[in-house]
Specification:
single chain; 12 strands; binds zinc ion
Length: about 280
């Protein structure tokens, strides 16, 4: 079994504040350890189920250099650093993976009672794919799906668990590590308890792989992105075949999801342009 494990930080048990995801703060140093421990717990669970597994861990938060390599379970390899062609899902396009797991996940932009909810950047208010509003969870799952890879486990707060249940169906293993009570407040499991639960859940998820279908998107793929500032739409409308819908919204159509996802990557980069 070849497994792709994407690890973000906002959904990790105990994490509630932007400082905890921002390099340079003492709180970040603790949060990255918690993130590393959750990744190691999932790796252990995968090997409990399949001692011959191959596991790629993708660090997918901010600078993509958060997981502490020497503290990660040594049976996995670590995908680290940026930029990456397909961002958080770069590597899935190898087409070699049997399943994917997403841990430390946060809710989509604008979600109520969802710690640190956002979609790629604080500048994006919404992303709508073929009429459905999706956050990072849906967009990343569709990228995996484009390469035939099912997402078999999703871990984060209660908002992530319900987003995943709606998107991915009842056979995906859902792990709630905290209950958000606002954008910067949650009641969380103890990190040790969360790691024990993640290990057991990852083991169970590997056994359920044949039951879970990849998330697929019909082609062609039309995406609308709503920005928080019209000046960002001004910039984004410079990309070939991206049309302006209104002051804050742009729309584009691409032949398939990976090509649409690359435009989303580019939009995310443009959102950090000083204007
Ligand atoms: Zn993140």
């Amino acid at each position: 079994m070849k497994v792709f494990v994407a690890v973000d930080i906002e959904g990790v048990a105990g994490v509630v504040h932007t400082d905890e995801g921002s390099p340079g703060t003492p709180e970040y140093e603790r949060a990255r350890r918690l993130m590393t421990n959750e990744a190691s717990a999932v790796i252990a669970g995968i090997f409990d189920a399949d001692p011959h597994a191959e596991v790629t861990v993708a660090d997918v938060h901010g600078p993509y250099r958060n997981i502490i390599p020497e503290l990660l379970d040594e049976r996995a390899t670590l995908l680290r650093g940026k930029p990456r062609h397909f961002g958080m899902m770069d590597g899935i396009d190898d087409g070699e993976f049997d399943c994917a797991m997403f841990i430390g996940v946060h809710g989509k932009a604008g979600t109520d009672d969802s710690v640190l909810s956002h979609t790629f950047t604080g500048s994006i208010l919404d992303v709508v794919v073929n009429g459905a509003s999706w956050g990072e969870l849906g967009l990343n799952a569709a990228m995996a799906g484009a390469y035939g890879v099912p997402v078999v486990l999703v871990a984060g707060d209660q908002s992530v668990v319900s987003e995943a249940a709606e998107l991915l169906g009842s056979d995906v293993t859902l792990v709630q590590t905290k209950q958000s009570r606002g954008h910067l407040t949650s009641e969380s499991m103890h990190p040790n308890a969360s790691c024990r639960l993640l290990r057991k859940s990852a083991e169970a998820a590997i056994r359920h792989v044949p039951m879970v279908a990849p998330l697929t998107v019909s082609n062609p793929v039309t995406v609308e992105v709503t920005l928080n500032r019209p000046v960002l739409a001004d910039l984004i409308a410079m990309i070939d075949d991206v049309e302006r819908v209104n002051g804050r919204t742009v729309r584009f159509t691409r032949a398939d999801f990976p090509n649409a996802f690359r435009i989303l990557r580019l939009i995310t980069v443009l959102c950090s342009t000083p204007v």
